From TrEMBL:
It is found in: Cytoplasm; Nucleus. CDD domains: T-box_TBX4_5-like. Residues 1-47, 267-393, 436-502 are annotated as: Disordered. Residues 314-326 have a biased composition (Low complexity). This is T-box transcription factor TBX5-like. The gene is LOC114441379. One of its GO terms (cellular component) is cytoplasm. Keywords: Cytoplasm, DNA-binding, Nucleus, Transcription, Transcription regulation. Residues 56-236 form the T-box domain. The keyword Flavoprotein does not apply. GO terms for molecular function: DNA-binding transcription factor activity, RNA polymerase II-specific; RNA polymerase II cis-regulatory region sequence-specific DNA binding. Pfam families: T-box (PF00907). Coiled coil: none annotated. Residues 32-47, 446-459 have a biased composition (Polar residues).
Length: 529
DNA sequence: TCTATCACTTG
DNA sequence: CCAAGTGATAG
């Protein structure tokens, strides 16, 4: 019960770190503590990335959900995650600028169903949608800024709308996913433009979840109600609840509130976690420093998640989600190495066998979303304005850019492109981007900041970024530009889209694309101007 | 399964 | 009051 999760803000648990361990933590506050964090280990090199450590906030709460089998609601309009993804980052160079971003990759290539109080595989996963990246609104910001307080990704929203114009992360219902945090050095010296872009990726296996349009396991519902302040209205114990329900419903007098009933009824553990449960907490977590290997680590159930398809969604090639907090660091080469490695298969997870999902190539195409100028948000141009969404857009100002042309080629691995001014580079594309399996595109928020990062997987996938405009930026740096990282692309460019065509007129996205992996590498500035 | 709507909470 | 986010619920 207790934990209210985010709100507290404090507790942290160390989870992963990038490379070495410098210090451990700064503070942990009290609260739960976790036990074992992972140890840090690491390795690596990259300039300055080595001492970076990341602690998942409220890990204990995440673990509670994970043990049951975390479910996250996805809606057309976008739904926040709960628990919220918040981390404490230490080991950053105070003066260096970094971009923090998240992405959520498929945990495996299966489709799940919840029956008989447990999750089971029903079939193969759908193609994976465009992987989008959510760039923390404060990005880029100095290490001092990021270290000052918890870095919250609570504004990140999940949607099941493949044509989502807001830059929310698009997921498929009844599929398993693994959130990942990436820290990219954006300093001028090295950063964006240079070739050495260093970055590291952290994966907390306890944050893996199955996306759903409505909760399947009542235990999860109960945990959400108990811990999410916004759901407080559903807490009730006892009488109140009944009364309340009765009043509300009028209809059936509930003898017992459904929720209550359900809860009791189901007690089964989730399959999901079933297995893992115990594991997860283990200290073992420490995973290896590099991720790639990750396979290793525990076998927690999460592994399911882990399975990184390489192609699929993982943006970074190497990053496979591992269970542990792994850190992948990538630096240049390592990334690749890593990537390849890991894969184990667990019963659950399977690596994506060959097929990966679709790979087909369809990419979303990006149309251009006119980026709203920084202040503006919506673009009338799109026509969206009217739409219900439009308002949102405005508010959020999130924009996505897709590059129509991908020049992925050009961009290679880690190139960053600057896009900021949105306009510049974008191209509008067609009416609407159909959904594509893996496109890559990024969105940026208002125009500022980054647009994308890249990623990629070996396959054609790319990801998109979304920046959230919304948030705050406290110290945000001048928004200047956005940068994108790209990785090299392996495959083809994006652009094609398969079907759909749509009618929608949504906005356009620009994509920058990126595909491939980001390795670390070299970014280039591209376009800027 | 998914969508839209509802009453409720937080801030 | 409002905006926004929640789970519950009916369709």
């Amino acid at each position: 019960m207790a934990n209210g999760g985010d709100q507290f803000g404090l507790a942290e648990r160390p989870d992963s770190d990038c490379m070495d361990s410098p210090k451990e933590t700064k503070q942990e506050k009290h609260s739960f503590t976790l036990n074992s964090p992972t140890s840090p280990q690491t390795a690596s090199n990259q300039q300055g990335m080595e001492g970076i450590k990341v602690f998942l906030h409220d890990r204990e709460l995440w673990t509670k959900f994970d043990e049951v089998g975390t479910e996250m609601i996805i809606t057309k309009a976008g739904r926040r995650m709960f628990p919220s993804y918040k981390v404490k980052v230490t080991g950053l160079n105070p003066k260096t600028k970094y971009i923090l971003l998240m992405d959520i990759v498929p945990g495996d290539d299966h489709r799940y169903k919840f029956a008989d109080n447990k999750w089971s595989i029903t079939g193969k996963a759908e193609p994976a949608m465009p992987g989008r990246l959510y760039v923390h609104p404060d990005s880029p910001a100095t290490g001092a800024h990021w270290s000052r307080q918890l870095v919250s990704f609570q504004k990140l929203k999940l949607t099941n709308n493949h044509l989502d114009p807001f830059g929310h992360i698009i997921l498929n219902s009844m599929h398993k996913y693994q959130p990942r945090l990436h820290i990219v050095k954006a300093d001028e010296n090295n950063g964006f433009g240079s070739k050495n872009t260093a970055f590291c990726t952290h994966v907390f296996s306890e944050t893996a979840f199955i996306a759903v349009t409505s909760y399947q396991n009542h235990k999860i519902t109960q945990l959400k109600i108990e811990n999410n302040p916004f759901a407080k209205g559903f807490r009730g114990s006892d009488d109140n609840e009944l009364h309340r329900m009765a009043k509300l419903q009028g209809k059936d007098y509930p003898v017992v509130p459904r929720s209550t009933v359900r809860q009791r009824v189901c007690s089964a553990g989730s399959p999901f976690s079933g297995e893992s449960r115990g594991l997860r907490a283990s200290p073992e977590d420490v995973g290896s420093p590099y991720s790639c290997e990750n396979g290793l680590n525990r076998s927690s159930p999460r592994e399911l998640l882990n399975a990184p398809p390489a192609h699929y969604t993982l943006p970074h090639p190497h990053l496979q989600p591992a269970q542990q907090p792994q850190v992948y660091h990538c630096t240049k080469r390592k990334a690749e190495e890593n990537c390849s490695s890991g894969n184990h298969q667990h019963p659950y997870k399977k690596p994506f066998p060959g097929g990966s999902p679709s790979e087909g190539q369809s990419y979303y195409h990006p149309s251009s979303y006119p980026a709203p100028p920084p202040g503006l948000s919506s673009n009338p141009a799109l026509g969206l304005t009217d739409s219900p969404y439009s308002s949102d857009m405005g508010q959020r100002q999130a924009c996505m850019f897709a590059s129509s042309e991908p020049r992925m080629d050009e961009l290679n691995c880690a190139s960053w492109s600057y896009t900021c001014p949105l306009s510049t580079a974008m191209t509008p594309m067609e009416p609407y981007p159909p959904y594509t399996p893996h496109p890559t595109y990024s969105s940026s928020p208002q125009g500022s900041r980054l647009s994308a990062i890249a990623h990629q997987s070996p396959s054609p996938l790319g990801e998109q970024l979304t920046h959230d405009p919304y948030q705050n930026q406290s110290s945000g740096p001048p928004p200047q530009s956005s940068q994108n990282i790209h990785s090299r692309q392996l495959s083809s460019p994006l652009r094609e889209y398969p079907r759909y065509t749509p009618n929608l007129s949504p906005p356009l996205y620009h994509t920058l694309e990126t595909h491939t992996h980001i390795r670390c590498g070299v970014p280039e500035w591209s376009a800027a101007s």
